[in-house]
Amino acid sequence: MSQVTREHFDQDMVPCYAPMAMVPVRGEGCTLWDQAGHAYLDLAGGIAVNCLGHCHPVLVDAIAQQSQRLWHVSNIMTNEPALALAGKLKAHSFADRVFFCNSGAEANEAAFKLARRAAVNLYGPEKSEIIAFKQGFHGRTFFTVSVGGQACYSDGFGPKPQEIRHLPYNDLAAVSAAMSSRTCAVVVELIQGEGGVIPVDLNFLKGLRELCDRHNALLIVDEVQTGVGRTGHFYAYQATGVIPDILTSAKSLGGGFPIAAMLTTESCAKHFTPGTHGSTYGGNPLACAVANAVVDVVSEPSFLAKVQLSGAALVQALNQLNEQYHLFQTVRGQGLLVGAELNQQWQGRAGEIMAAAAQQGLLMLVAGKNVLRFTPPLIITPAEIEQAIGKLARAITELQEKAIA
After folding, report:
1. pTM, whole model, 2 decimals?
2. Looking at the 3D structure of the chain, how many domains does it have?
3. Does the annotation place 225 within a ligand binding site?
4. Is 140 annotated as a binding residue?
5. What pathway, per the record (predicted)?
6. Long-range interactions of 16-25: CB distance < 8 A, separation 24+
7. 279 is in an annotated binding site
8. Res 273: pLDDT
């Protein structure tokens, strides 16, 4: 496909993205190569998706084997990889029941619909309010983007779904004042990823659980970005002592292959009877075969322990970088979901830094204009972390030199 270039995007694609100038063609581990053969150290990981890096041999083998057996049958029948995966997710979580779909947005859509359906069945149609949090992000469907707490993503599409209230994150008093008998669910990210890599306060999360119990509301935990090993726990809630009623999982679950899941309890699941919800591709054998392989690798205690060590090493390296260049106000996160918030001197320049890093062969992310976000493959090595920081240092030096010139 050498005749295909970046210019074809501008000619042929809907312009809802603004992709980089380079076009990646091959990946292995934590490295990508573009059409010109340039190598990039990947600390973006497909936006926290490629948990085992690019073309991990276990995943390549899983997809190769399943591709010769069965790809798709629809949900008029079940299949062996889906049943095996559901059992594994139950074994590694609080859940009694699992629903498969294709993306985090679809998993959250299912969660919000289930919460409202359960409330209608148990208490009547007036119990429909969903409480979410400012700067939250839950997907791009119209329902999920409306529940998300960033108006820049939901404005401009006409009337929004109603009975959604956005409150300040980590402000328990605000939630306590707002909740009522009309509240059917509270949805919370354990780390606000798109909102700036902001971890949940443990007392806030415990308070949400208590308030939900008091008001007969469901606690929905969005683990689309934090789930399947990202924080050094299989699911991040497992480090909190707080058990949700519904959990959503995607991104790392397929290691790069599209799959998502909504996990829930028996008492909640019974409100989704045949015909109330569905997904054409959800739980297809190909995706589930890959996800089974991901879960087998990531769920190993030694693997999760290594993620925690790698996360600590990345934070330490960023803090050491900060001692030299005085970039960051704070470095925060858990495991290998890390955000570095720029200080006053560098405010608004996250995108500029990301672009400069790419020129040095380092791929990373931003979370708004003031936070650098790092979501590398969970297999990243200490040597690769050191290389990444070196590339970032060169990018910063270049920006400083341009400013002086």
Report:
1. 0.95
2. 2
3. yes
4. yes
5. Amino-acid biosynthesis; L-arginine biosynthesis; N(2)-acetyl-L-ornithine from L-glutamate: step 4/4
6. 20/358, 22/358, 25/1
7. yes
8. 96
